[in-house]
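Can't paste images in this forum, so I'm doing it all in text. The chain is below; anyone willing to post the predicted structure tokens underneath?
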Amino acid sequence: MSTLSVTRRKPLYVLMTLITALAGGGIFMLLHLPLPWLLGPMIAVLTGSNLRKQVYIWPGQIRNTGMIIVGYTIGLSLTGSALNQIAYQLPSMLLMTTLLLLFCAGIAVIVSKVSGTNYKTILLGSIPGGLTQMLVLAEEPEDINLTVVTVIQVVRLMMIIICVPLLIYSPLFASHAGGGENTPLLVESAAGWGGLFPNIFYFVVACTVCGIVGQKIKFPTAYLLGPAIITAILQISGLQGPALPDVLINAAQLMIGVYVGLLLDPRKLNNKLLTLSLAVGSGAVLIAGAYGLSLLFAYLDSVSSATALLSLAPGGMDQMSLIAHEVGADLPTVAGYQLFRTFFIFFAVPPLFKLIFREKKRKTAVVS
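Text version of the structure:
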């Protein structure tokens, strides 16, 4: 199909994508499955785009809108007391993040030896929470398979989004509601439309501007962190942010779920079975490792098992925050840990990897 034809029919393709997503969400609702408006649309468009020749299009602006809504919700939870608690937990955040990254490096060693794929490729594919950064880094070394890195990252993210809610709703997490840690937020989230005005106008403008500016200056996850930070600042300054109706939270889940579902296209892989097997296998081990670390975290910091797992789950902060909101976990703690890992990976990991790769290349050159 020509590019011109796709451009002309873009509104129709976007509408078809939306209808598919709504159908997926509706089916998940009828089946009483967890996170129906995140998982339903994601799986529906993933299935449709890979089983049929139907063109699915989801503009980045729609996904960014969903990110802004989630960022605003995170910002509402970042009160002064919550930020003090996050600051108090910084040593624990550093410890848990370091352990998780070391675990990822260990997985990469095993997968690399089993598959015969070079270690750099598997390592960059295994590092959680930094898809964009890892892809940029993967473009530099000559011996990195960018396709494999992308698929492992995307499959891991999708597995996290699907498996973590199922884990939390399983018998392993009998008290998945989080022990009431976030009950006030959940009660507020049921507010009606009338409670939004007039303050919501100020937050809409501030969140949108911060998201756009953050993207311009290459701020990590700008459309999520920008709104979260400005919302927290405005709240601490005395401007009360209204809680959002459930329909807006569900809409944000759909906007993000569709985007994630369209990230993966197995038809573009040369060796589909091997690459997908590597991605699924390493993703499963990573989830198991995150679960093990969450048990340690819950024991050391006396938080609920749901809060611990969502804080350490190697998925996107937007998805983990949505799940935390849904199950009543401690949203400030979850957002704090996910935020810390995002910044740690963004600022510390790429320079470290570049140094390691450069040193290995130098040693190889000397030996040759």
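Confidence is low (pLDDT under 50) at residues 175-190. The chain has 18 helices and no strands.
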